[in-house]
């Protein structure tokens, strides 16, 4: 096992005082160079553009950021890698693309760089789960960039209202709190679904494609289900998975806004931020936005907690987010410059600024920083979820993108009642098994 991976956990006990500052260069060693970076259009993107400009001021290398939607990003970088056109030097890599990118050799194995710059990077400060954003069979084909955890987001003002609590207790016979079990989630969602008032208890992504597939997998995890393992054994038609899909369909039938079967991530978030939806399962990258009065009508009214499970016991935390990888086709000298950019944005100093500008953490020191905790009091909750996070509940296997396409169709067909939950997952299982038939 690699030396740097062996020592990752050590840094969780004591944050090193060995880190070498990466925020300044004595000269501009890369004057006139241009790096092109393909980036997901996520909350962090605007500041990533800013960091690209700052890197040019420090080193002379201009970083041009091409901001793309999820589907377009994958299409463009895969085309670039498979045709050897070298359009991009760097690209953000979704955690679920890890196995495919590694097996196909599309992005450079960063392990030699990490070993060489171990102390400068302060590797032990990088939280262990974040390495799943690029690790596959001993290779690190993307460096952790933006770590997300999945949590239950809910309206504290409504769940904490005395009149609502009294009414809920009278109707359901127990106290109204943030739900810990999926049965409780159903009760709370039903209680707060009031279409005549324009209020809906629970929202999820329904749009055909990656949005619905990924949202459903979060509920599947809550039932203890799984899609497939690394050996190609398929479990997506298991009783737990079918039960999860039946609940997921119920969200759209009973608790979500009328347009939810067409929702992508930004639509789901808008429904919560505008006060239309009371609860959602959401990625932590969105958490700061709920406190931004320019985009949110629920400032000061949001709680962030454990996503409910079937039993309420042994909660697991879905981990995801984005790594950043270097195109394996570009020349070694360009790879070296690209690595300097990665190393710089991953530094402790820049990571703090990153968090203050809609970024997402990868470091323990970031999540423990007193100033950041004062500004973002939900960081201790995030830290707990990072420590216990599961980066594999969505299978990072090389076949993932094909699996996601299958589920993106079949799950959507279930919520639109073209198929029953059992029919949808039976078909999905057959189609996924065919991927492994050869």
Tally of alpha and pi helices = 19
The name of the CATH topology of the largest domain is D-Maltodextrin-Binding Protein, domain 2
Regions with pLDDT < 50 over 5+ consecutive residues?
Answer: 1-24
CATH second-level architecture of the largest domain: 3-Layer(aba) Sandwich
Query: What Rg, in angstroms, do the CA atoms define?
Result: 22 Å
CATH homologous superfamily of the largest domain? Periplasmic binding protein-like II
Structure description:
The protein is an alpha/beta fold. The chain has two domains: 207 residues, 3-Layer(aba) Sandwich (D-Maltodextrin-Binding Protein, domain 2), CATH 3.40.190; 210 residues, Periplasmic binding protein-like II (D-Maltodextrin-Binding Protein, domain 2, 3-Layer(aba) Sandwich). The chain is 43% helix and 13% strand. Strands 1, 2, 3, 6, 7, 8, 9 and 10 form an eight-stranded mixed sheet that branches. Strands 4-5 form a two-stranded antiparallel sheet. Helix 2 links the parallel strand 1 and strand 2. The two termini are 31 Å apart. The N terminus is likely disordered.
Fill in the keyword field for this structure.
438 residues; D-Maltodextrin-Binding Protein, domain 2; alpha/beta; 2 domains; globular; eight-stranded mixed β-sheet; disordered N terminus
Topology:
Blueprint: H1 3-6, E1 34-40, H2 45-59, E2 62-68, H3 70-83, E3 90-94, H4 98-104, H5 111-116, H6 118-121, E4 135-136, E5 139-140, E6 143-155, H7 156-159, H8 162-172, H9 182-191, H10 210-222, H11 239-255, H12 265-273, E7 279-283, E8 302-305, E9 317-326, H13 332-345, H14 348-356, H15 364-368, H16 370-375, H17 379-387, E10 389-390, H18 400-415, H19 421-435
Parallel strand pairs: 1-2, 1-3, 9-10
Antiparallel strand pairs: 3-9, 4-5, 6-7, 6-8, 6-9
